[in-house]
Amino acid sequence: MSIEAIARAALSGDALAARSLTQDFFRSQPKLASIASPNVNDPAVLALSAALLELFALRTQQAAPAWTEVVGGLSQPVFLLKAAETMRRLRELCLQQSPEPLRRRNIFVPPNYLELA
Question: What is the pTM of this model?
Fold first, then answer.
């Protein structure tokens, strides 16, 4: 399972697939620092891939891949939960408490997004 696949599922709004892919990803016991940058032309996929790897690194007390440090953010905010577009409180929660690796790239989610069970 690739970080790119998780990012694409999340960006498409398929939260169930993103969670399932994340669980599969961690079952393979990845060494996060060794994961190569996705070979993609989509800046959103690249930004989210970097943000997710940094988030997973924080949560698992691992180092993130060095390439994530140079990946910038998106010009427009992206809410990975579509309900945040219409639900004011959810939108505010995402804006205020989105994990830092996502928030600094202009990507917003609830604070417990993709936490492992």
Answer: 0.93
